[in-house]
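COURSE: Structural Biology Practicum
ASSIGNMENT: Worksheet 4, Part C
STUDENT ID: 0417
INSTRUCTIONS: Below are two proteins. For each, the amino acid sequence is given first, followed by its structure token string. Answer the questions at the end about the second protein only.

PROTEIN I
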Amino acid sequence: MSDFWLYALLIGVIIVIALAVYAGKLLKQLAQQKEQQAQAELAHQQALNKHDKKVFDSILLITRAMQEEQCEFDEGCWRLSVLLSSLKTLTELTEKFPGIFGLYDEIKNLSILDARKNLTKKDRMREDYQRMTALNKRHDEVVSDLDELYKFTTEQLAHLTS
């Protein structure tokens, strides 16, 4: 009978050791998976930051051109709105820059490029009037937003490059 308990104890110890080795193996796999996930998340965040840095560089260029009156406000607001909306790491910028987005919202349905060329003279004049009215209404607000956007963009670029 004592041999039976000795064998049972030996089998029990072997089973416990096997389970402990298996649990260790599983814990090691879990640690590797967590490390891979962390690396994937880091790579994803770096890709988003790289995208946003390119966008901010373009925003800075357009903002300066608008401030120096080298770019029309309607065209600049159109471009800035699209660029700001494409940022991957920031949201809710429409509230932060209401002049830029407001002007864009007022002119986004107006014809441009070839579509504008195909308009009748009367329709083109009507759209020009709508564009000028929107520009006059939002001018001061856009100028204020440009100053804020310049500061905001330089801060974001400093943050992304550090």
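PROTEIN II
(use this one for the questions)
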Amino acid sequence: MSIQVAPSILAADFANLQSEVEMLNASEADFIHIDIMDGVFVPNISFGIPVTKAIQSHATKPLDVHLMIQNPDDYLGAFRDCGAEIISVHYEACPHLHRTLQGIHSLGAKRGVAINPHTSIDLLSEIITDIDLVCLMSVNPGFGGQKFIENTYEKVKRLKSLINQKGAKTLIEIDGGVNLQNAPKLMECGADILVAGSFVFNSENPVQTISALRSLA
């Protein structure tokens, strides 16, 4: 099975958002990854419900919404209404993670859990079978264009081992600093989905760049 690719709209040209979304529609991208930042959980503010709704109005690809926010439970329904097919919340922002995942599931969306670079895989052991997707942050969350954290490879291996040990069907998504140099090794370690922002949108031909990532075997 080839790797799946989720270009991050955070790196797009916001002045031409419709054309950027239409470009992704025409590409081999599997998802459109949308980073929601509140300036509290992470030191940056991106966009929220109205822009997500605008993206939905033009998108033909599934929306993969990554909530880098405090109190995500308060916004699950709103982002589902904006077309989110995957909703990822941060482990670090959810004191009652099982309840939050139940809430996402009840809305008919896929349940995602994102974890920061310092957060241990072991903390997901008791709940991995209730998670559809784990988003491993391979940079510190908040800003695009950061350098990939090398320890991510080992973390992917440990997560894949946990998934297999528990008999879960959880997918592994990598978010941050992904490129054609590290993507093959991430796949080899067990990654299923690659989020790529700056690498895609800053390239000369984003459609070809997405195709190159997706054709890796």
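ANSWER KEY EXCERPT:
Q1: Strands lie at 4-7, 32-37, 63-68, 84-90, 110-115, 133-137, 171-175, 193-196.
Q2: The mean pLDDT is 95.
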